Amino acid sequence: MKGTIYLTGSKSSSGDQIWCPLPSSCILFFVQYCQSQQFEVVFITDGDPGTSYSEISMSSLKDISVRFLSWEDVDAVVKNVCLPAVHQAELSLVRAGLCVVLRHIIKIADVECPAKKLIDLLGFRQGSMRMCSEVSGWTKLCEVDLSDSVSILIQSIKKLKHLSPNQDEAETNLTLPLDLLKLESHFTKKCKVHNDDKKRRAEISRLKKLLFNYLETKTPEPELNHLTNSENSQCPAAQDEEIVKKTGPNLEPEVYIENISISSSQLKIEHLLRLPHGVRKVRVVKDFSKMKTRSDLDIAELTTEFSALNVDSKKNNQHLSEGFLAQVVSIPGFAQIVEGLTYLDVEYMHTYSEGPEMTLADLILFVYVYLFLEKLDFDCLVISEHLPNIMHWMKHMASLTTVTLTGQSVGWNMSGLTEGLRMVFSKGNLDSKQNRISFKKPKDTAFEYEEDMELSRCAVTKHRALKPEVYQALKKLEEAEIKPCLGHHPQGVNVTVDWDNLPSGVHPREGDVPEKRTRRKCQQLENLVTAVQTVAKPGHAIVDFCSGGGHLGIILAYLLPQCQVYLVENKEESLLKVCSRLESLAITNVTLYQCNIDYFTGKFDVGVCLHACGSATDMVQELCLNAGAAFVICPCCYGSIRKTHLLTYPRSIQFQDSSINYKDFLTLGHAADQTEFNIALEEQGRECMNLVDSDRAAYARELGYHVTLCSLQPLSCTPKNNLIVGIPS
Question: Which CATH number fits the domain that encloses residue 660?
């Protein structure tokens, strides 16, 4: 059964074009890149055409099943999320958000045709774009920030093109968005590679084997078609299959040496490995002054003999010819230097956005930058001064045949892009195409790395607080006469669930909870379930945010069959486990959503979460407050609290007026995580935990909610045992 991809897009009046925003363009580009037949595309036509930034030819989608619907005709479960989205009706599962949808497309297409090795686009441990934008600065930049800022920039360019030729020059000088400059700066950073030493040792071994082969025998050199931009009749899928034949799981990747240079101080070798998607470039530098044995090595003679060779002897302008390499390795002393190479001499080149290998992120960013350059009529010279690293990266991406053919398949002017980039890197003094539009950097280009999330796949490092800082923060609250005030659970002491009379599939042990944790997990669930039962009514929609394996959502759905229960979780693996449990229980009042918290936009009456990490608790509370819904929240990971593009701290006016600043609040959060039983700082940690949650409770009260801050029963069920229950007045 095909999955249905819902995108925002409008058909032109002539019917031969589709106008769509950047995320929709990314999805269409990916579907064509993967050549998957497992999806149909449904365009939602109610969007404002003025917010569309690209045009896709209808003829380019001839191999894809395409439909058009108005928003009112869309399935109700899909209306609960932001587009793009994928609906898998057979699983009662909706996936939403650009990165979630793209990762799903890649996984399905990889199963459909494993020979293409599309799964490689997800990178090491399939981690590319896996972390949600709330905690990963890199995902936020690629999925949210650049999409928004490039869209605004494209809109500004479109407006300027309609101005009169006599317009003031100052009005045609646009400011580059800070997000593009962040990406530009990102390319200057050193590559981070997992299992770094192990991989670098493999690179050295591979290079030595290649070079020493030239001392013994010569073999015909295969063509490097994958790297050229020449016309090629093969489709991306066919090319990938050819690559896999040469670089399959049991074969070594093909290695090509791009450049060798020898000076009086060092040897430098740049080589690349051909991969199913792109290449991996490696630089090896041997500093002669650090060589342990060089008594019989005449560096001057080595340099002289190398200088006499024709260094420009390359094949296809991509890599050094066999003849030239044979001459190099035969130079006296060269083999001795190569033998002395170690993994410490290896450096991975930052060829792609996430490091040395192409990933999902590169294809997302390629779409953004292409559409930006297209609106400039590919006059790349007007921005090359400000974005040289991005231009180098674009030049490489445009040289990959699979990328070029995919662009052509969606009707893009890839030859125009190639020519525009060629002008940038031409050695001659070329002028811009007399484009009336120019660009400048913002006045303040300093990135606040301490406060902004780091551009990495992982969550930002927790704030670490010293004892004096904790004391100072507590003193400020004491002087403001702010003290935590804990109440009682809405059900008093009656917080138990009769697990023996429930189906075994409802019990958390069916969700892979370890035996030693099962009892405590049951106690945690009992506290939240009984609290929800006091506020939920028949017909209510209940959302279990950060639902994980669905322990809370499943028991709520079973005990409250007249309520509709939505499980919102970003991790696909967790939701797939829920699917099997729901099937065994024959529960039909549950819909699953794989998406970021803020991508769920549907109406609901009660929001719940059990141990949502750090700022996720506050995002859940914010959604509930905006929806006018009741909430039952058990926070966790106070040390992971961070301000985001959606949240600031402290939350309440009461705490803000107490002179507690953002750093003080992070300090309280750090201390609040020190609540493990029987440790020296447990009492202080509990006080800080209660204060952080008092801020959350005060924030809701200021918005008209009746709020109870209480403890789970028994306290021993978890160190993070606060419960916040809010009911709209």
Answer: 3.40.50.150
Burial of 678 (0-12, 13-18, 19+ CB in 10 A): exposed
Helices then strands, each counted (H, E), the chain: 23, 23
Q: Specify the DSSP element, H or E, that contains 348.
A: strand 346-348
Within 452-535, residue ranges assigned H as helices are 467-479, 515-535
Rounded-to-integer distance, Cα 147 and Cα 404, Å: 22
Q: By the 8 A CB rule, do 566 and 578 touch? A: no
- The Cβ-side half-sphere exposure at 433, using a 13 Å CA radius, reads 14
Q: Is the dihedral of CA 696, 697, 703, 707 positive or negative?
A: positive
Half-sphere exposure of 621 (CA within 13 A, CB side): 29
Question: Is the same domain home to 342 and 481?
Answer: no
Q: What distance in Å separates the CA atoms of residue 389 and residue 185, rounded to the nearest whole number?
A: 8
Distance between CA atoms of residues 285 and 267, nearest Å:
6
Q: β-pairing, 173-175 with 438-440?
A: parallel
**Enclosing domain of residue 429:** 3-183+356-440
CA distance 500 to 519: 13
| Residue 497 DSSP one-character state | -
- Condensed to tens digits (0 to 9), the pLDDT of residues 495-526 reads 999 999 999 889 988 877 888 889 999 999 99
- The predicted pLDDT at position 436 comes to 67
**pLDDT value of position 294:** 57
Question: By percentage, how much of the chain surpasses pLDDT 70?
Answer: 85
Residue 459 lies in a domain: no
Residue with more model confidence, 177 or 132: 177
51 close to 123: Cβ distance less than 8 angstroms: no
Q: What does pTM read for this prediction?
A: 0.87
Q: Do 25 and 371 meet the contact criterion of CB atoms below 8 Å apart?
A: yes
Q: Which of 555, 568, 565 is nearest to 528 (CA)?
A: 555
Map residue 471 onto helix, strand or coil. helix
Query: Does residue 709 lie within any of the structural domains?
Result: yes
pLDDT at 429: 52
Residues recorded for the chain:
729
98-112 per-residue burial string, b: 16 or more CB within 10 A, e: under 16: bbbbbbbbbebbbee
**Are 335 and 367 part of one and the same domain?**
no
* Closest-CA residue to 673 (of 726, 611, 619, 717): 611
Give the domain CATH number at 30.
1.20.1050
Name the burial class of residue 309, with classes exposed (0-12), middle (13-18) and buried (19+) by CB atoms within 10 angstroms of its CB: middle
Q: What values do phi and psi take at 515, rounded to 5?
A: -55, -40
CA-based max dimension of the chain: 90
587 phi and psi angles, rounded to 5 deg: -85, 130
DSSP state of 680: T
Provide the 8-state DSSP code for 379: -
Cα-to-chain-centroid distance, residue 588: 32
* CA-based nearest residue to 356, from 150, 190, 480: 190
Which tens digits make up the pLDDT trace of 459-474?
Answer: 445 556 667 888 899 9
* Residue 82 and residue 144 share a domain: yes
Residues 6+ apart with CB under 8 A from 300: 264
The DSSP symbol for 645 reads S
Bigger pLDDT: 487 vs 675: 487
Structure confidence at residue 693 as a pLDDT band (50, 70, 90): very high
